[in-house]
Amino acid sequence: MTAGTSTRGAAIDIRSIRKRYGSFVALDEVSMRIEAGEFMTFLGPSGSGKTTTLNLIAGFTDLSGGDIRVGDRSVGGLPAHKRNIGVVFQHYALFPHMTVFKNVTYPLKLRGVPKTERERRARHALEMVRLEDFVHRYPSELSGGQQQRVALARAVVFDPPLLLMDEPLGALDKKLREWLQLEIKRIHRELGSTFVYVTHDQEEALVLSDRIAVFNRGRIEQIGTGHELYTDPATLFVGRFIGESSVFKGPHESSDGETAIEVAGVKVAARGRPATPGPQAILVRPEKITVTKPGGEAPEQVNRLRGRVSECLYLGAGTKYEVRLPDGTVILSRMPVAERPFAIGDEVDVFWPIDDSKLLADDGSTDSA
Is 90 found in the same domain as 148? Predict the structure, then answer.
């Protein structure tokens, strides 16, 4: 690898993979294709199967069924050290007795790369992560962010077609994490390798990814771009996990191309009819909901409810309101900052266009899912 060049990443085909631990099913028939050079993020709560999938790709865990192909070969039966995959862990896994430079050259030494070439590649990798002035330091002399960048340099120094990253920024503070997210995006563009990234942080997934696979209970709920997952969630779980929302549940009825659910004695409508039988829910994003004085003007074809402001949070560019309805339902709204904002205890109306209501099957998911 030389400065200014990039590798071509490897495509990954995951075909009906399963993983069982005794009677416990950690993964159940998971399939997807990750394109060469793509940045794919596995997102989901703890125990959803995202790290298990990463470990199966890496070869750290054996398949219970199915197959994984990296490029043009099946790797399901290969040990981890023969898969030519770079891996970055959350806790760095650096050798404490080696300098930064020796840590980075170590994978090349294992591969029998001549010393001169090892040193050239290591220098370039350290330049890529902006640590070329730290070659003689030991891990104990580095900050957490610097150690993570060394781990990243070590993972890319042998030019892998595929790089796996398991919550690599989870132990860092918010500001440093945000800076390193941008660095990882830059390195991905420079290398051209395929990146697979595991996180439970939705904002991190939205910032980094070309596409996101949302995991839940050993299955994939939906794969799509961040925009697709936010604006058009396929399931209530995805809608609640990606971003904030107001959700209305209850008995529903459909007529004239709309489906309505009764909320605090008022019918709230969404376009369309249920795609599947059973309980339904309506999901609305907070930026779609307007808070106004009782009886204030509103466009036609909107849902409108009355309640009281229970929380008011100034967020700089806008204000977040929580409005509690008489039945206890809480509605979230994010609005531009007003000259005379509403205060806690104020009686208000909330409204939003019917077209901004998303009708989804009620899968039982909650905000803590």
Answer: yes
pLDDT tens, position by position, 6-43: 447 999 999 999 999 999 999 999 999 999 999 999 99
| Predicted pLDDT of residue 368 | 56
Residues pairing with 246 in the sheet: 284
What's the number of CA atoms in the CB half-sphere (13 Å) around residue 306?
Answer: 6
* Residue 369 located in a structural domain: no
Tell me how many domains the chain contains.
2
pLDDT band at 2, cuts 50/70/90? very low
Q: Are 94 and 202 in a shared domain?
A: yes
Whole-structure pTM value: 0.90
Structural domain harbouring 349? 244-361
pLDDT band at 369 (very low <50, low <70, confident <90, very high): low
- Tens digits of residue pLDDT in 200-236: 999 999 999 999 999 999 999 999 999 999 999 999 9
Q: Would you say residue 56 has pLDDT above 60?
A: yes
